[in-house]
């Protein structure tokens, strides 16, 4: 990845107040825009939730997030093919896992994989997490927020689409319990540096670049591919203070 230039947007540590500016970073616009102008996906798998367009699925996600205050709630943004989700949910049956992915095929394939392993402590959503979590996790509900190998959005005009931003870090601070962790893994070192700087600028996290780039967790498919080809990866954690 070193042959590409990683363009940086200036960070002030302050979230953007203008909702129109914030909505430009979302997949398909904000929730109101998606519901007014978007087209619901035709989901073939009943275990995939569509909280954007189906009211019953929105309420199912709410119930999953609030059903047991003593059960750790873990959210993964961008679970891709679900291999990490399966390994993690099998290792930690006590958690409630909630995964978000914007690609229908990945959602359906991951749902089949979870079902084939008999795992019942996970729910999968076809949605941009940033549309749904403000209604589900505000006030500190999450124990962990996992972001593994997000799109770097290399081109300067696409920088605003990056997940890690002042807005996202401020929102995540509200979604996490005190002591809850936001964890990033990436194979783009400047993205790791961006995450460190953005978390530090917020001021409400204890920030650390982990010595173990796998963070003691099951490996994702991306990590295995990087290991196969000898490419390094990095892990950055921000613990809510």
Give the integer mean of the pLDDT values.
91
Residue stretches low in confidence (pLDDT < 50, at least 5 long) are none
SSE order, as H and E?
HHEHEHEHEHEHEHEHE
Helical amount among residues, as a percent range? 25-40%
Secondary-structure arrangement, i.e. CATH architecture: 3-Layer(aba) Sandwich
CATH level 4 superfamily: Vaccinia Virus protein VP39
Radius of gyration: 17 Å
Helix/sheet category: alpha/beta
Shape: globular
Count of discrete structural domains? 1
Textual characterization of the structure:
With 241 residues, the chain is α/β, with parallel strands linked by helices. Helix content is 36%, strand content 20%. The chain has 9 helices and 8 strands. An 8-stranded mixed sheet has the order 1-4-3-2-5-6-8-7. Strand 2 (73-77), helix 4 and strand 3 (96-101) form a beta-alpha-beta unit. The longest helix is centred in the C-terminal third of the chain and has 14 residues, at 189-202. The protein is globular, with a radius of gyration of 17 Å. The mean pLDDT is 91.
